[in-house]
Amino acid sequence: MRIGLLGAGRIGAFHAETLAAHPDVGELLVADADPVRAQGVAADTGARALSVDAALEARPDAVLIASATAAHAHLITRAAEQGIPTFCEKPVALDVPGTTAALDAVAAAGGILQIGFQRRFDPAYLAARQALRDGRLGRLHTVRTVSSDATPPPAAYVPASGGLYRDCLIHDFDILRWVTGREITEVYATGANIGADYFRVAGDADTAAVLLTLDGGVLATATATRYHAAGYDVRMELAGTDEQFGIGFGPRTPLASLEPDAGAHAPRSERWPGFLARFADAYRAEIGAFLRVARGEAPNPCEGQEALRALLVAEACELSRQERRPVRMAEVTDRARRRAAGSSGVKGVVA
């Protein structure tokens, strides 16, 4: 297969290594807004460096979009119009109109779009999803998620990130829906600023907590912070009437137990340093899945609508934080639908 990679930053470089080593990839085309960066990644992986336009004009068998977020929707639309199966890192766009416009373009072209929510490909999350469906927890009643960055992003990143709910917690919202098989019906979110002032200046929070109600009355909490020097920490707990399961607990988890019989915990040098180390295998698995989807050998495991559903939850959280009140998902969905109805060509808001 000839694969185009659009974006050669940190995650793009990682995907380039994965693609270059994959037996089904015969030629890799690497493009980036910064030609020097594209050339560097191409040299490291034996790929061919091109401009973004040239990479799309080469009509590859599939493209992976790992560019800056602001370019995602435009590149998705261009690839769809050329009939190229596409994988895109989350998000499609930072707002609902931009997301639905890109999804409408994919639908109009009858195209393929897989979204990069890599936790769906992590073995522990897969096992938890199956355990729920096998009834091993009994009746699920509580879910807890944690997402903590070891170090905060640079100040220049924050204004264009979409904020903590859209940039970070959106992964928790997606995996919560995917593992439980339930929809989120209401959120109550709050945020705090305990570190660098540039988060507050950007209208963002550097620490957040959300109480979510799922259909059937299941309750969930999701917390996130940009400051966790102990290490990168992503966990999930699922509690049922018969059993309780945990994800993300292991020798490299940056969590020290104070119980006297808990045993030694890993020193900081051995804990998870960041998302690429923690989810390396999951990222490779999702790219392998995408190549099978692009060849027509497998169903799409994470369609574009999944990005919109998670984004709507993030939108509800931001509204809740600003107005300091619970927000039902129906309110946000109805608002997005009304906005879409007043904008020709934007119609793909989910129910």
Tell me about this structure.
- By secondary structure, this protein is α/β, with parallel strands linked by helices.
- The protein folds into 2 domains: 2-119 and 283-302, Rossmann fold; 120-279, 2-Layer Sandwich (Dihydrodipicolinate Reductase, domain 2), CATH 3.30.360.
- Helix content is 39%, strand content 21%.
- The protein has helices spanning 10-21, 35-45, 52-57, 72-81, 96-109, 123-133, 164-180, 197-201, 275-278, 280-294, 304-323, 329-341; strands at 2-6, 27-31, 48-50, 62-65, 86-89, 113-116, 140-148, 184-192, 207-214, 219-225, 233-240, 244-247, 327-328.
- The strands form 2 sheets. It has a 7-stranded mixed beta sheet with strand order 12-11-7-10-9-8-13. The protein has a 6-stranded parallel beta sheet with strand order 3-2-1-4-5-6, sandwiched between helices.
- A hairpin with a 3-residue loop joins strand 11 (233-240) and strand 12.
- Helix 1 runs parallel beside helix 2 (35-45), helix 4 runs parallel beside helix 5 (96-109) and helix 5 (96-109) packs antiparallel against helix 11.
- The mean pLDDT is 95.
CATH superfamily assignment of the largest domain?
Dihydrodipicolinate Reductase, domain 2
Number of helices: 12
**Major beta-sheet overview:** 7 strands, mixed
Uncertain runs = none
Give Rg in angstroms: 20 Å
CATH class of the largest domain: Alpha Beta
Q: Mean pLDDT score, rounded? A: 95
Q: Identify the strand order in the major beta sheet.
A: 12-11-7-10-9-8-13
How much helix is in the residues?
25-40%
The tally of strands reads 13
| Outline type | globular
